[in-house]
Amino acid sequence: MMRTTHAMEDPLDCLLFDPALPARHVRASYEADLGETRAFLPSRVPLGELPSVFELYVSASMQLPARFPAERGGVRSWLERQFSHDDPAVLNAIPGLDDAERDRLMTVLAVLGHTYRWDCVPPAPDRFEERRISLPPGIDGPWTALARICGHPRVGTAWSLHLCNWRMTDRPGGAAYRPEELTADNVRVAHNWLLPPADVHLERFSTSFVLLEARGAAVLRHLVDTVEALGCRRPGEALASLVHLQAAMMAMTTAFSLNVRTRTVDPAMWRELVQPTFAWSAEADVPGRLEPGPSGSQLGTIQALDAVLGVAGGSSLDEQAKVGRRYMPKPHRRFLQSLDRAGPAIRDVVRHSGCEELTEQFNGCVAALSSFRRTHQARGTQYLRSSQTGSSPRASTGLTIGVDDDAVATFERTMTARIAETEAAKLASAGQPGPGEPTTCAETDPAPPEGCSHPRPQGSWRG
Ligand code: HEM
Q: What share of the chain is helix, strand, coil (3-state, %, to 5)?
């Protein structure tokens, strides 16, 4: 009775009573908001072309490698000359671009904006002190206009600087592809701003984000199947989906670990020449707010897992993940929001299922997420430690590590806290109620759930 009154007071709350509704919403958003690839990746291979009015931008971005290294003099004064005024023809062309063209232009502008911000690599130490960047009008105008249309701050994001900045060696821009077709052999960075030999290290680092989301496509497929099966109370199917989900997560972690090895991406090269340009660490279009660059906190698959598995807790990385959504494409934010809504109800279904096997498998997926985080922690520490003696200061792209911090200690501490939060998402095994849970569910149907071979003695499948 209490519940009915409550539900009438808050219409959204009634969703929690029937987990099928938010679960169906997740399915609908997955199909509508994640494009043809059903991944946090573009629907087609990113375009190689843009309408001719943007030619100056594309050709400038191609010239960056020859000018950006410190020994070549840097790019600021050159870009100031090239883009000394805001061209109305360029501004007028922006609203008519289709999504793929917008993504491509955003990548080009973000590459120009970020290289301008640092002028050269390694950056001069006083660049790290700069909080206001006065961009040339011809970059500022279109970048600001496009960011407004895309609905995020005017700064490079994981989407613009990693997830849309690639091409395939075996097909043209605009071609269809399946995420599982993307490999380290056929994916190349589209806009590189470094000269050999550093260009290869930038390419491997940046495409490792693309490949993570490519492997993430299978994770998302099984995650959505899991949510739907649990929401619609199909335990046998949910169990099978959770098994697939865990396997897909492990495959994603293995790929991450292989793609980010010190013999693939050299730590010294990474620190001195690759990493600095991805940071922003200054204001953009919101006065007084420092903006991050494209950090891992803007990666959709990890955010999706956190939402469904219930990873929260208020650590700095938890906060950063929330902020990270601001920099993601709107449809991706919508999908993650649908998972936020479904997550608590879905976990309640597992919690009250009385099925030990289901709880264990759910916890197996939480363990797989911890394992990704441990692997990332080990890799990150390796990079920060082996590049500690470099000449330039550093700030992490997501702003967790400040220029004056002990990078390794800060990184270790924040990652350890996030791993602890992840572990805390594990559900108490059936028969052992977690904090605040009812001690019995015997008031409902005592029949074991269909497809569950390990029912809790007096428990039941209930949602
Ligand atoms: C190779 C050296 C790397 C280092 C030193 C490193 C460092 C960091 C740092 C400091 C953060 C906190 C946010 C920030 O301040 O930027 C972070 C977050 C994150 N990074 Fe990395 N990262 C590295 C590579 C990668 C790669 C290649 C990926 C993905 C392909 C990745 C995925 C993530 C994710 C998902 C987070 C969010 C934290 C979490 O959910 O646990 N990182 N990383």
A: 60, 5, 40
